[in-house]
Design a protein that fits this description.
Blueprint (H helix, E strand, L loop, with lengths): L2 H10 L2 E6 L5 E4 L2 E4 L8 H22 L9 H14 L6 H8 L3 H9 L2 H6 L1 H12 L10
Antiparallel strand pairs: 1-2, 2-3
Helix pairs in contact: 1-3, 2-3, 3-7, 4-5, 5-7
């Protein structure tokens, strides 16, 4: 498992039974939205397949929205952006943050992350990702993967 994938699974959790997320959306696997309807339980293999599809979708969205991100940002900071897009779908509403990252102002970008509504909603996830953005280092729980 890649560290990016492990990071997302750390934040999203892994559930083979359907559940309603904090906004009431039916979800299964590793943060996979099923829409407005409950989904039957899935196997670990199906969960892995859904995660791969969702990761590719997030990577495509990230590369389209911020084509510069895959060139020179480094694996850790790219993983932060990927995790954020996996979680939120887009960073279009974050123009200042994106400029800070593009300009390598990582401390400012991290502080920006910490002061958003998103951070107050996802708490631990935002704190971990902001630290990763600031330091460029994987969190301790992922360093040995």
């Amino acid at each position: 498992m890649t560290k990016s994938k492990a990071l997302i699974e750390l934040h999203e959790g892994r559930r083979l039974e359907p559940y309603q997320d904090s906004l009431g959306y039916w979800t299964i696997g590793v943060g996979h939205l099923t829409g407005a309807v409950e989904h039957p339980p899935i196997t670990d293999e199906e969960c892995d397949e859904l995660l791969e599809l969702d990761l590719q979708k997030a990577k495509n969205a990230l590369d389209k929205e911020m084509p510069w991100a895959s060139k020179g940002l480094g694996e850790v900071r790219y993983a932060v952006l990927l995790d954020m897009i996996f979680n939120m779908g887009s960073l279009r509403g974050w123009p200042v943050f994106k400029t800070q990252v593009k300009d390598a102002r990582y401390k400012a970008a991290a502080e920006n992350m910490r002061t958003t509504l998103w951070a107050s909603q996802v708490k631990t996830r935002a704190a971990r990702l902001a630290t990763m953005m600031e330091t460029g280092e994987w969190p301790p729980e992922l360093r040995n993967l």
